[in-house]
Amino acid sequence: MTLPKRSPCPVACTLDLIGDRWTLLIIRDMMFFNKQRFEEFLESPEGISTNILASRLKLLEELGLVEKQPYSNHARRMNYQLTDEGKSLRPVLKVMAVWGLKHVEGTQVPFFENPNSDVLDKK
Amino acid sequence: MTLPKRSPCPVACTLDLIGDRWTLLIIRDMMFFNKQRFEEFLESPEGISTNILASRLKLLEELGLVEKQPYSNHARRMNYQLTDEGKSLRPVLKVMAVWGLKHVEGTQVPFFENPNSDVLDKK
DNA sequence: GAGATAACTTGTAAAATGCAAGAAAAGATT
DNA sequence: AATCTTTTCTTGCATTTTACAAGTTATCTC
């Protein structure tokens, strides 16, 4: 799947894919908190709404960053998981987390426990 | 200046500041292309419109990421420059550029000349 | 087949964006 | 001293995206 590009700039193109208020937070939830289900994403403190979440998950799937699979034995239950492509965003999340911790007052890490912990560093 | 936070998460907070379609592109123009003036930002290939540009520059100034100074001897001419705080976003821009170059087809580097060049690495 | 669970969809109001036009400040020109 | 030029920025309006609330649908359990 290809979204319309504003320019050939890799920064602009990356922003076209994930540069909004919500997408990277969904990826954060999968990457650092191992969330996999619709309802789990809804529980995050930022309070994404259901229509935005559904549309973002769909887009992420179309982009090949996320895979969706039915979860056996439960009512209509789905599993959302990062693909390798999606996992490759780890450095982006990490650098943003580190920047935020240093430059935005009031940021904390029950989220990321410790800025230098392996939550950010592993894999 | 402090924007309302959605959560104490450093990723969410960073997105609250610069997580939109335009802000990082303005910073890119200052950081990698040494643009400093309103009109120069307008020339970038993504085609930001004047009202959006004005509002983002104002916000960036209020956040302390950008400084605005009158340019002597020219009609109403202003200079916009990154503060140290603004310059600290270089790793964020860099990691997004590297990711884009690798994962988004059709991204190029007349923008960044060469993914491994000192345009990205210096300072 | 009634109930529970979980993933969505729909409707509508509010906000942000995009586009075009033009206003305003200040030096340069005549 | 009036007009021109350059440059930043504002305004108005159409379109798109977001936010919030409510409701619908699919599938398993009892």
TrEMBL record, chains A, B:
This is Transcriptional regulator. InterPro entries: HTH_HxlR (IPR002577), WH-like_DNA-bd_sf (IPR036388), WH_DNA-bd_sf (IPR036390). It holds the Pfam family HxlR. Residues 9-108 form the HTH hxlR-type domain. It comes from the Bacteria. Keywords: DNA-binding, Transcription, Transcription regulation. GO terms for molecular function: DNA binding.
